[in-house]
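Supplementary Note 3. Input sequence used for the single-chain structure prediction.
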Amino acid sequence: MSIRISPYVRASVLTAAALVLSPAMSQVPAQKPETPAASFVARDTVSVTNLDVVVTDGKGNRVTGLKKEDFIVIEDNLEQLVTNFFAVEQGRIALPAEEATPAPVPAPAPAAAPAAVSAPRTRIVIFVDNLHIAPFDRNRVLRSVETFVRENVKDNVEGMIVVWNRSLKIRRKFTNDGRDLSDVLKQLEDESALGQEALSERRDVIKAIDDSTTVDEAAGSVRSYCQSIDNDLNFTIDAMKTTVDQLAGVDGRKILIHVSGGLPQSPGAELWKYISDKYRDSGSGTTTLFEFDRTTKYLGVIQAANASGVSIYTIDASGLSVDSNISAENRTTSQRIDTFVERNNLQSMLSLMSEETGGEAILNRNDVLASLKNIEKDYTSYYSLGYRSVRSGLDRPHKVEVKLSKKMKGFTVRARRSYLEKGVETKVREAVTSALFFPRDDNPLAVGLEIGKAVPADRENFAVPVVIRVPYARLAMLPEGSKMRGRVVFYFVVVDSAGKQSELTTQPVPIDIDAKKFEALVRKDFIYDVKLIMIPGGQKLSIAVRDDVTNSTSYLQRSVFISAFAGEESVPRK
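The predicted structure, written as discrete structure tokens, is reproduced below.
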């Protein structure tokens, strides 16, 4: 995205929703772009990295009663001092017991017990991958998921349903109504799932290998099949990453439950092995197998999930392993499909994504309800650890490991194994974008937003005037000679009714006021006028306003509907 400041700010767009910003300020004259004062440059920040940690014993039971000193946190091979700590037990924060004193002073009356504090909000996203699942397997698993959400999504636990079938659709936004989510999942049982089609295509490829007379002939058939599967797989992984990225600006404990029939690490791995078994010692598929390996793509999902604080739980809906060689479509094959290669290829990445993000993979089970109940235990019984470090503000990944002290033996610890160090700018950009899908109402700057009447801008677009007001009393203004200076950064992003999203536009606006006049403005508003160029139809606007001195940030969202006939009455008729 290229931005040209003065007199207009333009955002090039990926899709139909466009932004053209025309800044104008009242009460404060417009300033030419200038290098910010030293106050706005290279501020090191002390931030807290938080890790949610689940501890289980040898039988899988959650271990409670641990203390801060029982944990060891290692970041990039360096042990960190745990400064923030609390435990969650049965969905509530467990307050630490006060240490007993040798001779307690009698109180005139017993003190009231402190009220239990609810655990941080939990948000669960159920991702149904209709592209990589068979209808029968999906419906069997969804019935267990229906029971899970009906019983557990309530109070401060919210659920959301997204479906992938070559397009990503939000079927139900976040709600704490578990019965509503259960009804939506029930409706999905009547929809198509394309996993069976992939099995049919694979059967045709196996027959082509059987009928082939040379390695090259067999490899050609497999390559075409792999390219088709690989194309769908790449879009699927991108859809998962998109879902995770949208959760970046959402607060609370975040869980993604991915339901599929398995995701291949390398599309067609078992078929290259099948060729090698037929044309012995040929080594024909080894190089091509690595060509289609998509581990790096899955690592991108892992990094995004850990950066967003999302734990991934994967479900292989195909259930208990059955030798595919005894199925009807494979009874006439000349070779045997290597079921170990086949199963490992479909499940290894499910395990990797879960293990690296602090979740779990639910594999080789026809009844997954008990495993889903374990997920409920994970977000109602865990430990939150926080440690502080001085950061450069650069977005850099870090490895992290959580262990128990040596005296704590026989326990298993699960937590994310990496995180992305995020600067303030990255966090705000993520938050204002995710607010398009998951509204947030943080407004510490008391920002006011007014949207005016749309007028034609050209043959296809309309100009929507927007006025943003920020009380001067909420802004940090620094004295510099005879001036009071500050800077506010505005963020704008739009999504239309079809889900097409504009690029995010940022506009830093310096404030430069004569110190003698500033006192008279304290009770007034800093006003920023902007014109947004939008297409007709329903739009959702998300904005953020950040004070660049304190990094205090407000978020606001508004729905805007622009009629194709807006302003028509003002257009002269011939």
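The chain has three domains: 9-43+435-570, 45-95+381-421, 122-378. The domain at 9-43+435-570 is CATH 2.60.40.10 (Immunoglobulin-like).
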